[in-house]
Amino acid sequence: MHEQSLEDLYASNRGKDRYEPTDFYGIDELLTDEQKLIRDSVREWVKRDLSPIIEYYAQRSEFPSSIIKGLADAGAFGPQLPSEYGCGGLDYTTYGLIMQELERCDSGVRSTASVQGSLVMYPIYKFGSEEQRRKYLPGLASGALMGCFGLTEPDHGSNPGGMVTNYTDAGEDVILNGAKMWISNAPFADVAVVWAKNEQGKIKGIIVERGMEGFSTPETHNKWSLRASATGELVFNDVRVPKANILPGVEGLKGPLTCLNSARYGISWGAIGAALDCYDTARRYSLQREQFGRPIGGFQLQQKKLAEMLTEITKAQILNWRLGQLMDQGRATPAQISLAKRNNVNMALEIAREARQMLGGMGITGEYPIMRHMMNLESVITYEGTHDIHLLILGMEITGLNAFV
Ligand code: TGC
Ligand code: FAD
Q: How many Å lie between the centroid of ligand 2 and the Cα of residue 199?
């Protein structure tokens, strides 16, 4: 793929994103004016500044770093956290709507925002000291600092409690050793919220900064999914980290899992965005593409696909509207969030597969976003708890019996 300047990309692709949202059951009437205003402004930003360049960056397997400021200005970094730290001070429904609009364009870009807001800023806000909040949150909200979240290890993915990354006491500092794998934003992150065991074997969160000796972030290459998101490892070789960087407010696996509740919630909205884009693309294509002398949208088999897509999207929209209310009331349970993440991501992936078929050969090209969504969603159904892990979480909720062990 030949090099193209950002100016050329914008000049040749601006205005080509003709996405029209679908709201079959009038969910808009349940949203406040502020929620709709913010959602619409993110939608406009996506159309103007993100859509024209996303395919190019995904094909090159490169994160479009030029969008960081735009993401911050759109309020995508920590919208649900208090404004006194430079964050949005908004409700969880608005947070979800922002994630929906970002993932409508690309799951990788939503990933960058999810990690920053829910997995880096949220733990610093929730479990950090006041000094840590003031030191990091304003920079993270403005995009001056970017962060990543290190939980998964080469030998501990679904079972993060088995982690081996650890630190030992060294006076004013601790010495951190180990490695994290599959870490979104790692290659360019300025700070990493890392979960590691202390000498008592208890999991603690610790803020590691780029430049600390012995800390490196090699990039993971050859991904067929989330190509516009940078993924990497976090490697700690006797890294000396000040004790002041340990998050004082939590101990144990519930620390990272509490952050995952917020991020999984955002994903459940993001997935609807990806599904809406696939549905909208397939619907419009079906009206333009003619075979056997008429638009393929006139054939019953294609209508069945569209009708089922609309049904599943509508069910997910209603589910999420209610989940947003529960989040805002502080009543959403981890199992309720698991249900939404699991259902909505699977729904989006199935819609992407069906929509891809509706476009025939054109569906596999970068002329349309569907194949990119489909490949992205293979990661989304795996990270933040796999499809099967969320089923087991629900199974435990229903029966009270733990099927993990
Ligand atoms: P278990 O014994 O069940 O629980 C250990 C402690 O954690 C508490 N807990 C939770 N707390 C808050 N929220 C939740 N959702 C919680 N689930 C469990 C639990 O009460 C207990 O607390 P305490 O005080 O008794 O110690 O844990 P387990 O070892 O049996 O494991 C089960 C579990 C839940 C960890 C597993 O089911 C799981 O969720 N695995 C998935 C791992 C995962 O999601 N990793 C995600 C890595 S980050 C990522 O993918 C980011 S991608 C970002 C992007 O690019 O968008
Ligand atoms: P495994 O845990 O090895 O699972 C393999 C298979 O076994 C899965 O199908 C799983 O469902 C199944 N399985 C596991 N246990 C059970 C069981 N008890 N019963 C039945 N089936 C089971 N992690 C981070 O910490 N930070 C990040 O920023 C991050 N970003 C990511 C970005 C990408 C693109 C990807 C792909 C992953 C990312 N992850 C991140 C890691 C992600 O959370 C893990 O990949 C995920 O939790 C699954 O772990 P695993 O890949 O080790 O699979």
A: 26
